[in-house]
């Protein structure tokens, strides 16, 4: 592959988009099967999951000259695991949230990658190198240089635009969660004080204190923020909550849980 030829990068980018689309189809169908309803299982709005594109193109660049499928398999496992671990770490650093978590799988590393996923991606690497990439390369070779350039530019503009808009949405959602987390912390302190007070009184007095605590929650900033902020979530933010049910945040996990619970209530009302 001639890396001094501009057309090479056009092919690589189109391959990246094709495999990102294949990954989106696989993830969305799998999630939809488990949820018994359609789930757009992607971080971006468009039908692509970039980590699959990066992984597949990495396989093509690094493993295409290897003929032994066993070597391809284990090399694919390593490449995919490194890529997935780095992606999980980078997204957590950027958004202060963990978008997937493999802690419930055996042989995981910090919940970012697991043996099951690595074995599966090893299979994907063999399938891509031996069976899929020859057809993808043959298909893209049909484009004239002008068509290749035009298509690459159009797809790149769409991809970059989608990425920028999605990152802005996620950062906005992060701000909402931070605000809600602050309110939760304040209310928790107040609740702990009331619980300590609750233990001092007789049974008949405790009922009134419980009612006061319930009313206090409904009057609190936490409750108001849940009503105000969740009701204002747009479709993209709601889609992200649906697409990533294992979303976690060490910084504002209470807020994440409450927003996700509120989303489930919203979804249940719509299904009635």
UniProtKB/TrEMBL annotation:
The keyword Membrane applies. Residues 170-208 form a coiled coil. Keywords: Coiled coil, Membrane, Transmembrane, Transmembrane helix. The chain crosses the membrane at residues 12-31, 43-64, 70-92, 113-132, 147-167. InterPro entries: CmpB_TMEM229. The keyword Membrane applies. This is ABC transporter permease.
